[in-house]
Specification:
The structure is a homodimer. By secondary structure, chain A is mainly alpha-helical. Helix content of chain A is 67%, strand content 0%. Chain A is built from eleven helices and no strands. In chain A, helix 3 packs across helix 4, helix 6 packs across helix 7 and helix 6 packs across helix 8. Chains A and B meet through helix 6, helix 7, helix 8, helix 9 and helix 10 of A and helix 6, helix 7, helix 8, helix 9 and helix 10 of B. Chain A binds a DNA duplex through helix 3.
DNA sequence: TCATATATGATACATTTGTATAGTTACATG
DNA sequence: CATGTAACTATACAAATGTATCATATATGA
């Protein structure tokens, strides 16, 4: 049994192995990029079993969706109840199991999976709770701020290969993750737009919002 | 002719139409998710012409890559030289043409395209220049901070559908883009981790980096 | 024990999709 | 005008892939 209470891969039923393999392959290679034959082979079963247990590839994906969502809330509770993290506001991108789940969400969003909206919404809500607890009344639209944090975090996962180049270490390895954590602390604690620039930028934006000539293009930061 | 100097779609040569359609479809539907038949039909030409001009689908993708990179540096210069933006540090996610190009980059990263690394690197460098000009010596690793900004910006594009839900408007429309810009100004100007929390977080991370028992999972922020 | 349902496997099928080939038109150039 | 080269089309081909069908084994319960 792992820390999270699942049996080891070899001890799982064929159905569970299929779901587990699919979750991982979908996360790593994308949904389109994963073939049912790959999933079956890596689960040590035959092709037909996917149809038998899940009806179709899309049925298997749907099973992964509900399982991932259920696991995320479960893991979050488990981690919060865990004494070591009870006093920390952080969630659990450090927990390897959570990493897999969030990578699955990231890929679902990229691939336009039907459940992506629900999964995204859930993670945003969780982040929003944290923001509102930490900075009550500080932000005009806490949900939007939460969404931006999620965009950053999931963006890092989507671009983990490119981040590994910048880091000089695998961003998903423990070592790289720690380096990345340092950088993220700096990113989230130091503003990249000064108050003055922010003020004028907001002014400009408001002016543009009032005038309907939406053709104009200007912005006050966020180089990209 | 458009502002950027390209002829209108109907006036383009078949080869240019194919490249333009491919760029858009690859960006919107993904590379795997786009068929050469779709590209040909939407370009108003026959299937074989893709092979004639580009050799293969992958050849067409490569042509889009080099074109996108060339266009990005070209557009950036053009926008900077443009008087209206000369005094602003912002780059040009507001420019509709740049939006298409960056969406193409975002999709290339998602799909693991071979040129994704180069495109990402270029955008990060551009952002890094801006950061170093704005805040000289402020950040320990400016390139890493730039990468995090790019992760946020590209993450927003990847999740634009979900962001539209939060915004209550299409995130890629002028109206939604302005709303989003307001939120981004707040995001980049207000810290989400207080200095005290940041300090203790960095301490914790350093402790973990020294001790090789990388199994531990903790972090000092970045709820996700 | 026998029967029935569930689990599992082997194989065939149809569709999609990228690629290859051959033919046709248009256009420049001598 | 002749001719050849590039642009372009129509169609055929082969591989990959999700799905369906049929057969077999295993377990469970009357």
């Amino acid at each position: 049994m792992t820390l999270s209470g699942e049996p080891a891969f070899e001890d799982m039923t064929a159905k569970a192995r299929l779901r587990e393999t699919a979750l991982r392959l979908f996360a790593e290679e994308g949904i389109e990029g994963t073939t049912v034959r790959d999933i079956a082979r890596m689960s040590g079963v035959s092709l037909g079993l996917i149809r038998h247990h899940f009806g179709s590839k899309d049925g298997l994906r749907a099973a992964c969706d509900t399982y991932a969502i259920e696991q995320m809330v479960h893991l979050k509770k488990e981690i919060i109840l865990d004494g070591k993290l009870a006093d920390r506001e952080s969630m659990s991108s450090f927990h390897p199991r959570m990493l897999v789940l969030i990578r699955y969400v990231a890929r679902s969003v990229c691939d336009g999976s039907p459940s992506a909206d629900a999964m995204f919404s859930q993670i945003v809500s969780s982040t929003q709770d944290w923001i509102e607890a930490q900075f009550p009344g500080e932000f005009a639209d806490p949900r939007m701020q939460a969404a931006l944090v999620v965009a950053t975090e999931i963006g890092i996962l989507v671009m983990h290969k490119q981040f590994s180049d910048v880091l000089g270490a695998d961003a998903l390895s423990p070592k790289g993750h720690l380096q990345l954590a340092r950088a993220k602390v700096e990113f989230y604690s130091k503003p990249l737009i000064s108050p003055e620039v922010a003020a004028t930028a907001l002014e400009t934006i408001e002016k543009l919002q009032d005038s309907p000539n939406s053709k104009q293009h200007e912005e006050g930061g966020a180089a990209c």
